[in-house]
Model the fold of this input.
Amino acid sequence: MTAGSPDSVKIRFENVWQRFHVVRKRARTLHSALVHLSARRLMQFELEALKGVSFAVPAGETLGIIGRNGSGKSTILKIIARIFPPSAGRVEVNGHVSPLIELGAGFHPELTGRENVVLAGVLLGFTRRQMEGKLDAILAFAGMQEFADTPLRQYSTGMLARLGFAVATEIDPDILLVDEVLAVGDEGFQRKCLERMNSFRRQGKTMVFVSHEMGQVRAVCDRVLLLHDGEVLAEGKPDEVIARYHALLREMGPGAPVRK
Amino acid sequence: MLELFRDTYRYRELIWILAVKELKVRYKRSVLGFFWALLHPLLMMVVLTVVFSSILRFGIEKYPVFLVSGLFPWIFFSQSLLYASESIVTNGPLIKKVYVPKLVFPLAAILANLINFLLSLLPMALILLLLGFPFHTTWVFLPIPLLGLVLFAVGCGFIVSTINVFFHDMHHILQILLTAYFYFCPVIYDLSVVEARFHGLFRWNPLLYVLGGFRSAIYYGDPLPAPAVAVALGGGLLMVAVGYALFRRYQDTFPLYV
Done:
């Protein structure tokens, strides 16, 4: 299956499992390591973030992933972005993937916005010269020209999200991953982002969109996946899956713990 | 090993940018800025010269030259390891956001220190000029011990950066180990002042030959002895192979722990 053909599958997960060793109290120092050595088993438990997840995203589709906190949404994005390999199962990703833009997309707080944009691009496999060519467009889209030479540590959360989204979309990836980035931007910027995501759709690009904002999910997604405790609970048209999600939330009650 | 060289070449621009970033960040907030790269080794030389030629009296001719010919390479090696040990952890936010081959981080840390070392050749030349010390033609051999030292720094850098991900005390332990190792390597003294019965033990230290290579080229003006070349290159490559094998085995789990 080639990446270029229009009906090819861009992302395919087959029975993917992800286990994390979660430590209730991590022994990061010699003292606590010695103290907890005997109690190691008690201090550590295995969290199954994904339990046999399967799905496929054809080229040109925008897939929404919804679910409660801790249901495994971000883990899926991280596996797509190759940040870590799955514990078990098969993952196929065809095409150039955007970086994960989440809160604080700033790569290095001491460097300026401009330097960070170039660094981010080189990390994604572009040359320095290519990135310098894109700099103006990125800063313009983010509306950050005035702060281009300010160190990132002085940016606000919203400014970081703007820059992160601008970098991720301006590098023109085949597959765009968007995780909650819109939650922090102001309304004007949110509109700008949604417009850009829609223009990505028109260009036939593939997107995976994680959000708790159901209005936005309805506005951009072709299909939605509902995750619950690391399993796919429902999959289908946005309206149907969102209704199922709301029913799930009612069932669980407000303030239900993140995991049983 | 082949994969290591291929990825290093493929990501050379990234390694370069990360190294420059490292240097920028290191000096950005200090008043003297980049001058510290030159000042730090010079000041260390002054301190050690006062202690070991005026107070303790080793009786080594032109002691400052003797000293810097071993001290500046040593500073490169020890700083490389200290920066490499932190490299994965400090780049944690980045590792969690985008796929990057992890080896670029320790390599960039070492490259940053290599740039520093090459700059420190300037104050070194200044010292030689001020003392009227000749520039021996054997300076042309310097790339060999330097390559050896880089290989040892890379190999050890892979090891300490891996351990530091899982065990943050590594960085602190490393500082102590390096202090101890500093006295074990003949940097401030010559091997001849060590009692003969310990020489067997000292000969097991690979850096003895590598640092000795710098000293014979700069201070003694002797061509490199064959064992120095063999240990510098052979031992260095072996160190890289061992270090990279460990690093490679654990690199996929780094994003889960940093």
